[in-house]
Each structure stands twice: as structure tokens, then as C-alpha cells.
Amino acid sequence: MSDDLFLRIIQREIPADIVYENDQVLAFRDIEPQAPVHILVIPKVRIPTVNDLTPEQAGYVSAMFLAAKEVAQQEGIADSGYRLVMNCNEDGGQSVYHIHLHVLGGRALTWPPG
Ligand code: 5GP
């Protein structure tokens, strides 16, 4: 059994509310939403943090952004606006070590973050 929580979601070992999927990425609702729309977009390969990204994996990163755009349209927040966030390591607030793009929207978001 993998210790990578999000790989376990990809492998359907842990249930998730999946909203989008293609051969490179999976998107599902965050279990502890911080906004009316809070979806996580993840690559279907294990990349623990942004620091671990290699040039060969660049296709996964573009796939994540294209999926985020699709998800925003699906959720009806493309025009009202949304935020894409990726946390890295402890000071960045990362808690799951499989890179993920947070898609946040459905309300006016404050800036700067705390
Ligand atoms: P991070 O803090 O690493 O940037 O974001 C991890 C996110 O994963 C958090 O927003 C957290 O609520 C979410 N999360 C953690 N465990 C689970 C889970 O088992 N299922 C889902 N859907 N989201 C999770």
C-alpha cells in the first residue's frame, strides 16, 4: 500500500468526489473546503513537491493547468474568477507530498494570504 495519499485516490483505494479525469491528471473536491469551490488537481505520477519537478515532467504541469481551466468552467466560476495555488514544503503550508493545484472560487478571495 502506498504512503502517498493522493496516489491511493488515483488507484481508487480511498474514495474521493472526482470531478475531472484524463490520462495525465485527476481532479477531486477537497475534503476540507476553504471556499465554496475547492478542487485539487493532481498528476497521475508521484511528484512530491515542486522542488522535485524535472523538465521531462513539464507535460504534467501543463495538463494540470488545462484541467484547472476545465474544472473552473464546469463549476461555473471561470467568469467570476478563481485562484490557483500550489504550496511547497513546510513554510508554504504543504501537507500532502504529491503536488496538487488548489482551484479555489465561488466567493471573493482575500489577498495577500496569511
Ligand atoms: P496542502 O496543504 O498540501 O497544500 O493541501 C492538501 C489538501 O488536501 C488540503 O486542502 C486537505 O484538506 C486535502 N486533503 C487531505 N486529505 C484528503 C483526502 O483524503 N481527501 C481529499 N479529498 N482531500 C484531502
Give a verbal description of the structure.
The protein is α+β, with helices and mostly antiparallel strands and 114 residues long. It has three helices and five strands; from the N terminus they run αβββαβαβ. The protein has a five-stranded antiparallel β-sheet, with helices on one face. It is globular and about 40 Å long. The structure holds guanosine-5'-monophosphate. Guanosine-5'-monophosphate binds at residues 5, 14, 16, 28-32, 40, 87, 93-96.
Give me the secondary-structure topology:
Blueprint: H1 5-10, E1 18-21, E2 25-29, E3 37-43, H2 58-75, E4 82-85, H3 89-92, E5 101-105
Antiparallel strand pairs: 1-2, 2-3, 3-5, 4-5
This protein binds guanosine-5'-monophosphate.
Guanosine-5'-monophosphate is lined by residues 5, 14, 16, 28-32, 40, 87, 93-96.
Keywords:
binds guanosine-5'-monophosphate; 22% strand; alpha+beta; 114 residues; 5 strands
Total helix count? Answer: 3
DSSP helix fraction: 10-25%
Strand tally is 5
Please, what is the oligomeric state?
A: single chain
Strand content: 15-25%
Structural class: alpha+beta
Please state the CA-atom Rg, rounded to the nearest Å: 14 Å
| Major pleated sheet | 5 strands, antiparallel
Would you identify the regions where 5 or more consecutive residues have pLDDT less than 50?
Answer: none
Q: What is the averaged pLDDT score?
A: 97
Distance between the termini: 35 Å
Strand order of the largest sheet: 1-2-3-5-4
Taken in chain order, the helices and strands follow as HEEEHEHE
Global morphology: globular
- Give the cofactors and ligands: guanosine-5'-monophosphate
